[in-house]
Amino acid sequence: MPRLGLIFGDQLNTDHALLYALDPDQDFLVLGELAAETDYVPHHGQKIALIFAAMRHRRAELEADGWTVHYHHFDPDSDLRSFTDLVGALLAEQKVEEVVVSWPGEWRVLDEVRGWEQVLGVAVTVLPDTRFVSPLEDFQRWAAGRKSLRMEFFYREMRRRTGLLMDGKQPVGGQWNFDASNRKRWRGEPPSARPMRFSADEVTTEVLELVAGDIPHFGDLEGFDYPVTRAQARRALSHFISSALPHFGDFQDALPDEEDYLFHSRLSSSLNLGLLTPMEVCHAAEQAWQEGAAPLNAVEGFIRQVIGWREYIRGIYWLKMPEYAEGNALGNDQPLPAWYWSGKTGMRCLQRAIDATRRNAYAHHIQRLMVTGNFALLLGVVPAEICEWYLAVYADAYDWVELPNTLGMVMHADGGLLASKPYAASGKYIQRMGDHCAHCRYRVADTLGEDACPFNALYWDFLARHRAQFQSNPRMAMMYRNLDRMDEERLAAIRARAQDLRAGVEEL
Question: 202 lies in a domain?
Fold first, then answer.
């Protein structure tokens, strides 16, 4: 009897474990565009289109390689809504010895797969996910017995393991991390470098028309230009290495008002779909440094995001799920403002970040962490609500990467497992890193008054509300010294202003 190999839509890598475990002369592959995967959160239309278009192109490649592929096209009226429905329907049509999958990217999917033996009465094998450098077992061994699971130490081990940017046993340049060199404000020079754009072919055009007509979604479809094949993704990588990487390091934290991308790569969507591998993008960056085409601080910063942060986040997710998703260490109870979906707010930094998100299904990491994320942290948004928003609106967002980044890094809702201190900041940070404040209706220099930047009062109130949790943290000592310099009357006025902001947040 044949075996059925189900390929999830975010696992389109050419080294997929199924392609080595199954026999194309006997076994068959399955891909499906399923309603349950489009509506469990209100996904961005471009995210849905990207996944479906990439799946359809991958199907053609697999068939050209000799595989039999059963492909389920999206049908809003179909009874086949879920992976379970799809696999169950195929099992009803023909006898199958075994269902084989690769380790999913989301806990909810793994939980579904684990029920198939009982629900569908079929043997199920789950193979490793080959899209990552570090197997989950290796991360678990690294984490075992450690009091602190800081990314920096995991990253150093990954550098040693891969040999990237290493001189024997020592890091090239004499230090592991050049992050202190990567915080310059961009003032218009050098010219920004946009990611490579790709026009929609016939297959992608059909998908865009499908999403526009039949699938409820967030955001704009117009302007869709993501790579949807491995060949396109490799061209996008080459374009980034030559045009943007040389300046990526210096300006990776910059917040210019009129730039959506600046020198960021937008390669995360291709990495997370499996169209690119982490080692090939790291080797390309390392080669640029070796050839003198990109400085060390840029290359190290880029590689750290790929083999450091990306691998670490995935390890944390699978180490701590499913309980991790329930974290709310700061006791937040504020609803997510409705304008996170519309972008209709007078706060310029938030308006620009959300507008870019609506148009592109993308915002870079500082917009996510220090603008939309920082505001949600200071406001006290319920972690589950902001986590759902991030999962929905970004083309590169899958639960394994979104949840730890948002719940842990952005919201500090895991009690400090990921980050030793919360990434809380006043409007001064945003002013220092860009020019949003010059175009804003609120005054970044003011903390009190109707025209004062809302970040400021919320920041000081956040410190006051959570003093018991953070005042002994050595990384926050200066913040609390500054707070303690305020007289009681001013602090009371600030906290009253913060309370008014939370009560009237929908009007900001």
Answer: no
